[in-house]
Amino acid sequence: MPLKILVANLGSTSFKYRLFDMAAGEKLLARGGVERIGAAESKAFVEADGVREDFTVPAKDHAVAVRLCLSQLADPKRACLKDPSELAAIGFKAVHAQNVTGVQRVDERVLKAMEAYADVAPAHNPPYIAAMRLLSRELPDIPLVAAFETGFHETIPAASKNYGIPMEWVEKYGVKRWGFHGASHRFIAGRAAELLGKPGARIVSCHLGGSSSLCAIANGQSVATSMGMSPQTGLPQNNRVGEFDVFALPVLMRSTGKSLETLLDDLAERSGLLGLSGYNDLRDIEAGAARGEARSRLALDVYVASVRHYLGAYLLLLGGADAIVFTGGIGENSVAMRQAVCANLDWFGIRLDARANDSAKGEAAIHAATSRVQVWIMPTNEEIVVARQTQTLLDTNAG
Ligand code: ADP
Q: From CA 325, how far away is CA 331, in angstroms rounded?
């Protein structure tokens, strides 16, 4: 009996999915998605059995995009699904909800908790809530499952989880370091332990991409991470601020005359690497720096300093590391970024092999033979983590 699980990954203007048959050894049946949702012409694609088709379609919102993708999967020429009702479940890499984490069946309680934090995760929660509401209306018999990005970080000890704030804020309002990118860091924890042949390995997982975070992992569990109450904190993100002192806000409100909402929007949309350099994409920033643009150079330097700040902290916390792992679009692809992060760490026993770092493609070790700490590039697989978590929830509910 096939057990087909669709894993949905939503951005503010994108919907990406993968369809797995968990009963056939986690076989990837299809992947696809829609980009530029809301634009006059959205771009969609579907890839099944190694055949990719691209489409230009009108998709005015996420609802239209999801519906379109399901009908493409059920198209008899692909036959990935007999019809959408063949899905055992749809799993969502959900981001944040008020005092709700882990893996949850999507119901009104979960949706309300996500709505309550729409302004804490403004780029993520609104599209997820809209798509979940649509699907629960249109496909009421298919279980929707939210695997929260915060779930992997539930194991972080209190010393690393708490801000120095009145305890009432923690207890009543859930203000603490929740952490994000849980599916990615969980995947890296498992894969790195497997590759190192050491289940108790101490790992620093560096997920560097459009949004970035580091995670310290011991015995397969998160013990610290760089994102906090919201995905706007920690490392500078592509357009989100990263670490920031909230007491700059009254100064900015006075000086610019902007409201708190407008300034929060600036911090969530026009800050981070974009604010520093003027570019959203690390490739453009690297090209700008190569042309001698000072702002691009600064953005790269700030980013590297921030990654090294957390890397140093986590090496102390873990008492050294067995491996440092780079993943995400930047971690997997930027030779210069990996080189800059690992520069001059000989004293810690961390030494890259420059040639391996230059030429690595896909999963690869890039440390020198003399390095005490292994350094790896590992493409992450957040979708398979969500599919497994979704299946576990289905099994538990059935059991
Ligand atoms: P998201 O976090 O949105 O899922 P990704 O993990 O795909 O994003 O990462 C996107 C980032 O990866 C972008 O900033 C992009 O510039 C960067 N990136 C992709 N390819 C390269 C490359 N060859 N060199 C440098 N940066 C790259």
A: 8
Task: Select from 243, 227, 217, 224 the least CA-distant residue to 160.
Answer: 224
Nearest C-alpha to atom 23 of ligand 1 is from which residue? 333
What pLDDT does 85 receive? 83
Secondary structure class of 106 (helix, strand, coil): coil
Query: Whose alpha carbon is nearest atom 19 of ligand 1?
Result: 329
Cα of 255 from ligand 1 centre, angstroms: 35
pLDDT at residue 39, rounded to an integer = 85
Q: What is the pLDDT of residues 164-207, one digit of tens each?
A: 999 999 999 999 999 999 999 999 999 999 999 999 999 999 99
- In this structure, what token pair is assigned to residue 233? 């904190």
Q: What is the pLDDT of residue 10?
A: 85
H or E stretch covering 372: none
Kindly give the number of the ligand 1 atom that is closest to the alpha carbon of 238. 14
Dihedral angle of Cα 70, 72, 76, 78, to the nearest 10 degrees: -110
**HSE-CB of 123 using CA atoms within 13 angstroms:** 21
- 25 Cβ neighbours under 8 A, 6+ residues apart: none
- pLDDT, residue 121, reads 94
**The pLDDT value given to residue 84:** 83
- Delineate the domains of the chain, giving CATH numbers in brackets: 4-147 (3.30.420.40), 197-382 (3.30.420.40)
Provide the token pair at 45. 């694609």
Q: Identify the segments of the chain with pLDDT beneath 70.
A: none
Cα 364 to averaged position of ligand 1 atoms, centre (Å): 18
Dist. CA 303 → ligand 1 center (Å) = 14
Four-point Cα dihedral 164, 231, 240, 298, nearest 10: 70
Tokens of 381: 């697989």
Query: Whose alpha carbon is nearest atom 24 of ligand 1?
Result: 334
Distance 272 CA to ligand 1 centre (A): 15
β partners of residue 33: 16, 45
Residues having CB closer than 6 A to ligand 1 are 209-211, 238, 281-283, 328-330, 333-334
- The pLDDT value recorded for residue 190 is 98
